[in-house]
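By way of example, what follows is a protein record of this kind.
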Amino acid sequence: MTDFLGLAVAIAREAGDMLLAKRPARPEAVDTKSSRTDVVTALDRASEELIRDRVRAARPGDAILGEEGGHTGGTETEQGRVRWIVDPIDGTVNFMYGLPDWAVSIAVEVDGEVVAGVVNVVPRGELFAAARGAGAELFRDGLPPLRLRCNTGVPLSQALIATGFGYQAGRRAVQAEVLAHVLPKVRDIRRGGSCAADLCSVAAGRVDGYYERGPEEWDFSAGGLIATEAGALVGGLRGGPPAASMTVCAAPGLFEDLRGLLAPLDPERDA
């Protein structure tokens, strides 16, 4: 696992350095995905290509799932079936607008279990990393690594909760409806714009919990492991793993309370 983590850290750093060096004053969208506001830049694609090249060079038998390039490759290795799960820029709209919450997210999965995760929040100079069973750490230039622990013992009414919104109008309408019910029940809401960074914020105790409908595997795999290794729970709305239908993250106790608040609101639907 440490070998996987070391390689993922090196690649995430290189991709982040490239993005900082090549980012123009105002990146432009070159394509869209789920809607006209769900955008892709040329540097999303360049970052993913760099990551794919480095993974293929170091581990040619591994599969890669990337947000931009889909699923490629994959053969049995001596470690098992290894898959790299890549978001080359999580928070592309933030990247376009010059906001600081965007990240390179890389997770490594072996036989269906994520064993290493890296989230490089590039503008903040913060790299979050975790290996399964070994805890989670935050690396900042010039400072010793910081061991991460999520906040515990926070009641729902005092919890600072992060969330995010989709790009389709029907989904946003439901998310606004859900938010109107959640907001009076918690301390406050934060919307950062990057699922990966939000999950790391739970791990670092910067927010108490997180929920969102819409994040895909490349959004939550690395950050989910980092949060888990910092003591949080990460899962779906009615048990099971996190999913695009709903991802919830918080310390035990708050996790169940947040999930219990959300479930009656039927937040997995679209208008």
